[in-house]
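Sample intake sheet
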Amino acid sequence: MPDVYVVDAVRTPMGKFGGALSSVRPDDLAALVLRELLRRNPSVDKH
């Protein structure tokens, strides 16, 4: 298995308990972050 390196960082939004993000699932937030990382780094293989 090849080595993996972090090439960029993206952060999810921060909110307060019961705030605007309370209805957003954590895995949906993670998907947004991963999509943005792939958009910023087109040379990264998506598979």
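Comment: The chain has a mean pLDDT of 85. The helical segments are 26-40.
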